[in-house]
Each structure stands twice: as C-alpha cells, then as structure tokens.
Write a structure and sequence with these properties.
The chain has about 300 residues and is α/β, with parallel strands linked by helices. It is about 35% helix and about 15% strand. It has eleven helices and nine strands. The longest helix has 18 residues, at about 255-275. It starts with about 25 loop residues before the first strand and ends with a helix. It comes from Pocillopora meandrina.
C-alpha cells in the first residue's frame, strides 16, 4: 500500500480480503491510555514504594516520564492505530472502585476507553482493533471478573474468538462474521472462563529495554529477520526507547517525548522506509510512543 497520501482511517478495508491477521503489518501504540494520566490522583501501584512515599514531590517527574501518547483512543484509531496496549489497575479510591488505565499514574476508566473503541468500530465497520490487556495491578479475582464482564458486554456481538485458526484467520472471515474486536487477556484463569478472549501465548512481545537508539535499531533489525518467529502467534515489535534511571536523573525536568521519543521515532521511521517493497521483513504489529510523530503510522501501513 502507498503510505503518506492515503486516508489511514480505514486502511484495513483496502487490503486484499484473503490476507491473514498474522501477515498484516499493523501500527500500534505503547501504553495507549497514558494521554489521560491525571496528576490529581495518587501515584500508581506499579511504582516502587519509595516513589509512592514521596508522591507529591516526584509526581511531576513521574507524569513527564510516564505519558507515552498525546492522542485519545478514538484519535489514535482514526489515525490508523489498530493495536492498543492496555495496562490497568483497580482503584478503590474511586467512589465505585473503578478499573483504570495505569502507568505511574491513573488515567481514564476502562468504560471511557471502551466507549471510544466502540464508537470507532461502529463508524468504520471493516477496521479490526486488537486490545491487549497485558499488565494488571491490584486486581483480585472479583476485579478481573468485573473487567472481563465489562469487556464481554461491550463487544459480545463483534468479538473474534481465537478458535482453531488464531492469528491465521483471514480478513474475509472476520468481515463476513462482522467480527471487529480481538481481546488478548494475560490471565489464563480468565481466558478459561471467557473463551472469546485470546490467551497470552497467542502474542509475543519482546521488550528491548534500552534508551539507546542505535542499540534499538540493531535489536529491531534482528527481529525483522528472525527465522524462528512462530506462525501461531501475533508478533509485536516494540519500536521504542525505555528510559533508564540515569536518563531520568539527567533530564529530571524534561519529558520522555523530548528526550527519547522524538529522536527514536524519526530514526525508526527512516529505517522502516528502507524496507518498503522488500517483503523480507517479518513484522506484524509495530508499536511506538507518540505515534503521531515522524509519519510513523503511514510508514508502518505502507509495509503491507
């Protein structure tokens, strides 16, 4: 597909219907809900005890280095994102004990996230959205049930269950069944109870854990050529830098976007452009921070 000149709000609709999910190249967002992080709430349970102890003092720093996206869920989807990375926690301080997105601080409730996904798939019926619930905090069995019931109720008629095909399902089959949403849930007990959810072994997402762009590109290059990639799982490439403690200390008044993400997205996108038309890459889902930067989304889509 061509990249920059196309309307990416419905790019999937323009693909050949025999394409399999695992053979698509899909742009995704890392920590998709962090645009909504709220500095008025307490430090989250994913942070170390020491950070939580000095909450008021360190909260601005936590915020600046935890926000990884600028656009809302609907804006991300409208811009071409089709994979959402969702980390959630049970916040008992809420009047109704809400489940919220989390990354250092709390953000939107899960209902707010799902409302935007539902609005998008209603407006763009041939676009398929993958929701990957991969980190849970302060979630007991009752909280998991609350979340799973909410997901099931929100998408029951449009969910794609893994079935026997898993990632080998074609667009034609999903379109024919009006299946628009895939939920990957990283808890086997929940998946056993809700067979419409995909279990964690159907997705692979290695974490580079570096804040050096050159090192990241080396890792991504190896991943793009990997011959051992499973045919039976979705593959996530994390095209992003992870701030190390020393990096944050050196740039304590700055932000993840200014120090790491802007440069990273620019260099990653330039590298991805060199792979256009080669068909030698093994990419499936590519995620980034601040996905609006450097034509990341249209560049990823152009690899299809």
């Amino acid at each position: 597909m061509a990249g920059n000149s196309v309307d990416v709000s419905q790019w999937m609709e323009k693909l050949p219907n025999e394409k399999k999910l695992k053979d698509l190249v899909i742009p995704g967002s890392h920590d998709s809900g962090t645009f909504s992080l709220d500095k008025n709430m307490e430090i989250g349970p994913d942070e170390p005890n020491l950070i939580r102890k000095f909450g008021k003092l360190v909260k601005p720093v936590v915020y600046n280095w935890s926000v990884t996206q600028s656009m809302t869920i609907y804006e991300q989807l409208r811009s071409g994102i089709r994979y959402l990375d969702l980390r959630v926690a049970y916040r008992t301080a809420d009047k109704n004990s809400e489940i919220r997105v989390l990354h250092g601080l709390f953000g939107w409730t899960i209902d707010q996230v799902l409302d935007e996904v539902n609005r998008f798939v209603a407006n763009y019926p041939k676009e398929i959205v993958i929701l990957d619930f991969n980190h849970f905090y302060k979630m007991d069995q009752a909280a998991h049930k609350k979340l799973a019931d909410t997901l099931d109720a929100s998408f029951s008629k449009i969910l794609r269950a893994p079935g026997r095909q898993g990632p080998n399902v074609t667009l034609q089959e999903m379109w024919g069944n009006e299946e628009k949403v895939i939920i990957i849930y990283h808890d086997y007990d929940v998946v056993d109870t809700y067979p419409c959810f995909w279990p964690p072994h159907l997705i692979c997402s290695p974490w580079p854990n570096t804040d050096d762009t050159n090192q990241l590109l080396e890792i991504l290059n190896k991943q793009s050529e990997a011959s051992s990639i499973s045919e039976d799982a979705l593959q996530v490439t994390q095209a992003l830098l992870t701030p190390q403690n020393l990096t944050i200390v050196k740039h304590v008044t700055s932000t993840l976007k200014d120090v790491l993400a802007s440069k990273c997205n620019r260099q990653v996108t330039e590298w991805l452009k060199t792979l256009r038309g080669t068909k030698s890459h093994k990419f499936n889902i590519i995620i980034a921070d601040f996905v609006e930067l450097s034509d990341f989304i249209p560049t990823v889509i152009s690899l299809n």
